[in-house]
Amino acid sequence: MGSWFGGSQSPQPEVLTDQQKKFQETGHKIIKRCKLNLVIQRTALLNPESLLYLVKVLKSCAVPETPAPSPKDPNTNNTESQPTIDDTTIFTTKLLTEVILLNKSRILSIWSQIPELIMQIPILFKSAPHFQYVYTSITCAFTLARALLCVPELRPSLLQLIQVFCQMEFNQSFDHQKLKKKIAVGLRVSITSNLKYFGESEEWRAVCSMIQWCWTNQCVSDAVELLCAVIEPVNKRASNPSTTTNPNRGSAQRVIPTTYLTLSNLYAFIDLLRKFMTNNGQPHKPDSNIPEKLLKSLFHLVESLPSIGSTIPEQELVEKYITPALQYLKDLSCDIKSGVHATALSYLSRALLCPELESLGCASWVYILQEVVFSLLDNVQREDKTAPMGVSVEVINERRLKVIQGVLGKAFLAHLSKFFESPSFPQIWKKMLDYFDAFGQKNLAVTESLKNMLMVIFTSEHFKQNDQFWNESWARISSFAPDLKNDFSSTIAVQGTPL
Fold first, then answer.
1. Structural domain range at position 50
2. Whole-prediction pTM
3. Residue that is last in its domain, among 335, 360, 385
4. Which of 25, 126, 237, 318 is most buried (most C-beta within 10 Å)?
5. Nearest one of 497, 489, 411, 418 to 459, comparing CA atoms
């Protein structure tokens, strides 16, 4: 009977003789009785010389042999000269991996046998279509990497070995795409499991290049997950036991967020984050969670910067690291076309209020207010002329209110005492009233927000009896909100505190 896909006859199953059937049954019984796990466990009892010999033997079986070319035509590249790979080769590769993992404590004595085994994988992938062997070998290689990257003596060598996989060339076939995804997952899992052990700049450059490879090869989720794992904080305890998040919790220590990043490798990963956020100039899909993850990581980075830069002067930390990070959040919150502006604005507001920045001095906060918040307000003030087509006046007014309340108002009140200490406070306050004047003419809710801010200011010990401040403030406010003083006075009177 012909095949559905051609006219050839279907292959007939091989007919076994009685003796062959007997040998097959005997083989099945022997395999069933063989306790492989016990054999693997017993390798832990071998002395170093015997273990090394065993690894060498397994390696010789796991490395495919390439037959010599035919003497008739040594240049012929036929199937006879391809490496010999069968189920035994694949089985031995898995067995060798398990033996190595079981003897992890003695890895240095047998490691010399491993690099050659890993280096041959890309060669076999390129020269012969042994997909199952290559797939299994790469799986085993990343299993070893996940377990052994914590060993300082092996880490540089291991990073170089797994980077060899990133140099393999893939086509669009299903097998190649499956293998590429396997490499991306292997990179992500093995690196994220050992991030706390990385320290040398060369190691971080290797991590950076691996993240870049995942992104370039359309393994986007793995690239983003790995980048976020590097950036997002690892909580550490404050060295001062008296510093607590809640005075009622006794001696509980405050948690200080920090990351694996340092000042030396910070910019390389920030560049990756920017590249992923811009997505090569293409908007992210509406249902994509990538922008949210990247913005969250950027927020956590701002939280961690005081810890990362604890060894440098505050002015340098603020001007070179904290402010640029906040400015990037500000830029994203102004880019209405990107579709992430609302989320970016929310994270910017949270970043300006995070407890880790409270220790900054008044000069630093004045700098942040001018370079980030005032710059954001200037951009929002121009949005009625620069906003994309289809953005209504109502949407622009709503954004202005969110910026006034959620960014300017909250940041200013949260650090009010710092701003009051600054010699430039009168100029800062005057500029803030200018923004309320510009935005309040088209949005009454902005004026109401100013009233609420003034009520908070009034309760501060710095301003309650400061006649000069109030006289100058009401003189400026009366020019754009003439009824606000009476409304404010009535509210204060109801509360029993006359103005």
1. 22-64+84-227
2. 0.79
3. 360
4. 318
5. 497
